[in-house]
Amino acid sequence: MTLMSVSENLSLIQEKIDAVAAGAERASDDVQLVAVSKKQPEGRIQEALGAGHRTFGENRVQEAQERWGALRATYTDLKLHLIGPLQTNKAGDAVALFDVIETVDREKLARILGKEMEKQSRALPCFIQVNTGDEEQKAGISLDALDGFYVFCTKECGLNIIGLMCIPPINEEPERHFKLLAARAKALGLKHLSMGMSGDFERAISCGATYVRVGTGVFGARSKA
Ligand SMILES: *Cc1c(COP(=O)(O)O)cnc(C)c1O
Question: Nearest-5° angle of CA 166, CA 99, CA 223?
């Protein structure tokens, strides 16, 4: 394992993002790096903040509250993305803490998020998570139900859906899923695509990603706990 600092990793990944974006004739600020900080030690987060990085992804509401609740006061320009499954009883907390919700994936959740956003006067940008691999254990709306669910989220719940998000099946070529997600977003007139992680973010950008979610590539290995 190479021992690079978090700031070196951030520069390296940003260089790669810029290169792929340029190759695809896209502006490099068209692609945002979400540094996935879940289960990472505090020191590494501080390093990323010190390097000027402000966009982070967390997959659990409570862990994110503990980590970012206080830091928000210092770093007022933080952008926190929720990238993990959201339980309806945590929806209020999630709306209060996060800036972007990437995992809207079922009607009950969409309805509660809509109510909470109205109550808190926080109309957060949201992504619909799509289960492109039709995996039983994985979160995300099915491809078949996507168009109807989009209408439900926007018309019934008043959610500001800006794009689609997916996590391709672990043992498959991710490109097929990235392309599928891009096609579905285009058909719905949605501008944003959250796809690509440490192992495949460059391929995701080639397929149109506007947000890539990179954890270990930025921070190194996560603690197992
Ligand atoms: C953990 C996680 C990531 C980051 O994965 P890495 O392989 O560490 O880059 C991206 N997206 C989601 C939804 C995750 O839960």
Answer: 65
Length of the chain: 225
Tell which CATH architecture fits domain 6-16+35-217. Answer: Alpha-Beta Barrel (3.20)
Cα–Cα distance for residue pair 33/123, rounded to 1 Å:
22
At a CB cut-off of 8 Å and minimum separation 6, what does 174 contact? 168, 195, 196, 200, 203, 204
Dmax over CA atoms of the chain, in Å, equals: 49
Which residue's CA is the closest to the ligand 1 atom numbered 11? Answer: 213
Phi, psi of 38, rounded to the nearest 5 degrees: -55, 140
Residue 14 Cα to ligand 1 middle (Å): 17
Q: In sequence order, what E strands does 70-144 have?
A: 79-82, 100-104, 125-129
State the DSSP H helix or E strand holding residue 161, giving kind and residue range, or none if neither.
strand 160-165
Distance from the alpha carbon of residue 209 to the mean position of ligand 1, in angstroms: 15
pTM above 0.90, yes or no: yes
The answer, yes or no, to whether any atom of ligand 1 lies below 6 A from the CB of 204, is no
85 CB less than 6 Å from ligand 1?
Answer: no
CA 215–ligand 1 middle distance (angstroms)? 5
Bridge partners of residue 35, in order along the sequence: 56, 214
| Model pLDDT for residues 186-219, shown as the tens digit of each residue | 999 999 999 999 999 999 999 999 999 999 999 9
Closest residue by CA, ligand 1 atom 7: 198
